[in-house]
Amino acid sequence: MKVLITGGAGFIGSHLADALLARGDEVTILDVASDLKVRHQLGHPKFRYVRDSVLNREIVEGLVSWCDLVYHFAAVVGVEHYVGDPYQVLNVNVNGTQTVLNVAFKAGKKVVFSSSSEVYGRSLEVPFTEDGERVLGSTRIDRWCYSTSKAVGEHFCFAYHKMGLPVVVLRYFNVYGPRLDRMDVGRVISIFLGQLTRGAPLTVIGNGEQTRCFTYVEDTVRATLASGATDEAVGRIINVGSDREVSIRSLAEMMIRLSGSRSTITFVPQESIYGESYEDIPRRVPDLRLMKRVLRVTPQVSLEEGLKRTLDWFRGQSVEGSP
Ligand SMILES: NC(=O)c1ccc[n+]([C@@H]2O[C@H](COP(=O)([O-])OP(=O)(O)OC[C@H]3O[C@@H](n4cnc5c(N)ncnc54)[C@H](O)[C@@H]3O)[C@@H](O)[C@H]2O)c1
Asked: What's the domain range around 159?
């Protein structure tokens, strides 16, 4: 197959590209990134990197007409962006998605759209079922712009599906693994990794009782591959996650134990990190029945094993990068 991955130089896209190339597919990624997580694939005869934006319609048209399947991953991701640059989040995630879907619709190409557990907002109806309620705060709270942008993307998916576009919506739940963000930035695991490496205290926001279900990237990629190949997935929203619910405080304790670090834990008020434009989500747990039944994927990598592999990878990187 010929597969286009928008945002394919990022964390999940790079792992998906590896898996597609390993099974013999041709892969093109379209990304604006200078920090390429697929650098190791440059030079592969079936791999191509196009450095441009999903907002560039002409480029998107050319690449979509070349491919058989589109994974649309390009997005502005990360809480620091939701509260720091909501315009970029809305522009890329809404207008970029609209461009990709419109071009794919005209070319008759299937699209898998990477949505997010953020769409559920702070709903208390756990586990979150795909057709469950979404509960969001005021539009004056910037943190909701990402959730809203992904929900608009989903609405566009279903609007085009109604007109005949084959589309699958995946809602990812806290994916982690090698090549997650740089240490100290981005998501909670990479922030904790940076603090562990420096022997600094791990900063847990609030009381640390908020929970997440972290998903090892290999499991995410298996579900993502299946979504592109399963007819029954078309026209559906499918949660992609794990069912191991863990508090952020327990995650911090586990990472300290697994790394053998002497770091301690410090609790900080959320306003001191993200200002007033942030609200935390108390529990985030997916209902995985559709993922298991339609995609036939069950998470296989335990949190302990996944964290060990992630720690080892980041340690390898810091040794390689050291003078
Ligand atoms: N990692 C998770 O836990 C998670 C959870 C829910 C949803 N998602 C979604 O999955 C997708 C991939 O996430 P990720 O974790 O790999 O994030 P990531 O930030 O590593 O990857 C996103 C990529 O999109 C690229 N991008 C941004 N603007 C672009 C533009 N205008 N044109 C082309 N490319 C652009 C970025 O450069 C980046 O490489 C995203 O759509 C994200 O919203 C991820």
From this structure: 2-175+216-241+286-299
Ligand 1 geometric centre to CA of 257 (Å):
30
Q: Establish if 49 belongs to a structural domain.
A: yes
How many structural domains comprise the chain?
1
Residue 57, domain CATH: 3.40.50.720
Q: Three-state SS for 89?
A: helix
- What's the gap in Å between 323 CA and the centre of ligand 1? 31
* Cα gap 234→179, rounded to integer Å: 29
Which residue owns the Cα nearest ligand 1 atom 40? Answer: 73
Contact between 158 and 94 (Cβ < 8 Å): no
Domain contains 98: yes
Per-residue pLDDT 10s for the chain (323 aa) are: 999 999 999 999 999 999 999 999 999 999 999 888 999 999 999 999 999 999 999 999 999 999 999 999 999 998 888 888 999 999 999 999 999 999 999 999 999 999 999 999 999 999 999 999 999 999 999 989 999 999 999 999 999 999 999 999 999 999 999 999 887 778 899 999 999 989 999 999 999 999 999 999 999 999 999 999 999 999 999 999 999 999 999 999 999 999 999 999 999 987 776 666 667 888 999 999 999 999 999 999 999 999 999 999 998 886 554 33
Is the CB of 172 within 6 Å of ligand 1?
yes
For residue 141, CA distances in Å to 86, 138, 146, 271 come to 10, 6, 11, 12
Residue 146 lies in a domain: yes
Cis peptide upstream of residue 201 (ω within 30 degrees of 0)? no
Ligand 1 atom with least separation from CA of 30: 33
- Give the residue numbers marked as catalytic: 146
What is the atom index within ligand 1 of the atom nearest the CA of 88? 28
Residue 88 falls inside a structural domain:
yes
